[in-house]
Amino acid sequence: QCPALRRLSCAGTVAAGLRREEQPSGSVETGCQDKTPTKTFYEEQDERREQAQRTVLVHCPSKISEKEFLKHLSQHGPVHSHFFYESFGLYAVVEFCQKDSVDSLLNVTQIPAMGMEAVIPFRSRFLNLKLKSPSRPVSEMSPIQPSNQLPPSNRKLSELLYSAESVDDQLSTLLKELQLTEENTRLRYLICSLIEDIATAYFPGCTIRPFGSSVNTFGKLGCDLDMFIDLHETRKLRTHKRIGNFLMEFQVKNVPSERIATQKILTVIGESLDHFGPGCVGIQKILNARCPLVRFSHQASGFQCDLTTNNRVALKSSELLYIYGSMDSRVRALVFSIRCWARAHSLTSNIPGSWITNFSLTMMVIFFLQRRSPPILPTLDTLKALADTEDKCIIEGNNCTFTRDLNKIKPSENTETLELLLKEFFEYFGNFAFNKNSINIRQVNVLGREQNKPDSSPLHIENPFETSLNISKNVNQSQLQRFVELARESAWVLHQEDAYLPSSSSKPPWGLAALLLPSVMQSTKKQKKRCGSERIKSLLESMKSGSPESSANTSRN
Ligand code: CTP
Ligand code: MG
Description:
- By secondary structure, the chain is an alpha+beta fold.
- Helices cover 40% and strands 12% of the residues.
- The chain is built from 19 helices and 14 strands.
- The chain has helices at residues 12-15, 41-53, 66-74, 99-107, 154-162, 167-178, 182-202, 232-240, 258-276, 312-327, 329-344, 358-370, 380-385, 418-430, 477-495, 511-515, 518-530, 534-545, 548-551; strands spanning 19-20, 55-60, 79-86, 90-96, 126-128, 207-211, 225-230, 242-243, 246-247, 280-286, 293-298, 303-309, 394-395, 398-399.
- It has a five-stranded mixed beta sheet, with helices on both faces.
- Cytidine-5'-triphosphate (CTP) binds at residues 211-213, 216, 223-224, 226, 314, 317-318, 357-359, 463, 471.
């Protein structure tokens, strides 16, 4: 039996359209498609990494017989699963049961002859399939069903939200439509694995690990692929090679600082991606940033990739978010909606600048959920208190300890609906004293008081592990003010009596659908003035008492 079948991760893969060549014997775990994950972060990472190493990416002719293609590949060993997708051509992601099969396939794969041009004979697991003779008539082939790697269009999304049954249903629908699919996640790990093949030429034993939204359960289809080169494993090997009284060390070159070492490593990897990396284009070496990186596009997958080095603290924060995202099903639904709302109103952007980021928004949602009564999420200090010796983790002097055992965390007794939480989120941050207080998911607030800001940045969100860093340092006063105003407008929209009612065909967009339309938000500004209901009057009063000028303004106390 195929050894990989014993490790089958989730039944959702079948539901998601991933073809599995053999069905496993015995029961199959359920739940990774639109449910929260059940594995630990590292189990998930290790499993997917190993799976990616048994996988190849094949650019295929557009008319191809799936059956014959699989038969051809099966000469090298059993195929465990495969799927097709389209991105300027047809691609197949094929996972073999054994790694040997990949080696066998690569052994018979040829370097192409290019006529007038010369080729760089770089052998990788990104292949090109050619037909020796014309394919059979299309009518004889069963059509290939490519899996979709892109989020639904705004129009499609609006329609889905419009026809949902309740605001709760709208938030769940949004999550289901935008979250990374099983195939997209596999593709992300595969791209890391392909980049790792290039990096190991320079740094044997290194690992390229994905982090950020690709792995923290908050990734949306189309999000960037953050990855870092982990040289730590190489170091770990070295410390294990102690025999008797002898300690063997590598001969190495020294440079004046860790930063210079990072820049040198990224320089050579950036160069090799540029010269030899199939499908890697638009390579930019951004070496003077606080966290130096190489940015490039991976054409065949369509991913925008950011490669850094030794970013173990960021990996730890991805693990923390993974845990928070797995604790309660409301967390991801709320985060996706807030991120989507922020994007719809250009509060976030793909271009770096003074905008708020998705990472900051996620921290704000976690902070807000920690402050519900009873809390929906525990603070990071609580997770630290529950940690045992195995969880202890210090990275570059930063204490990154927290429990990884979800069973130790009591489920929340809070039963608030998503609809209520969405509305309360906007009210909470529409009236938050950003001028005085910081957002810190680590500590329990003493006597109900929030933490004072340590500096004058308009928005202060403490990095959970590198506590001297403000993750929203880039956000300026006017962007914060826009956020506050939009939060207030959104609270107002959701407070209108009929905002909760599913629309009939004549009704305007409602609930979350209304919040995602900048035009609706504009018109509510006018409506608000005409509105007379008591509930709204009192809400407007509370908004007045914390006007954007007074609450979002930067005070230097
Ligand atoms: N990060 C950080 N401090 C920052 C920015 C980012 O520690 N000021 C870390 C976080 O772990 C974050 C990761 O780097 O998750 C990747 O950053 P980014 O790509 O900006 O955010 P994502 O969480 O990946 O969200 P997105 O979907 O917008 O890419
Ligand atoms: Mg990212």
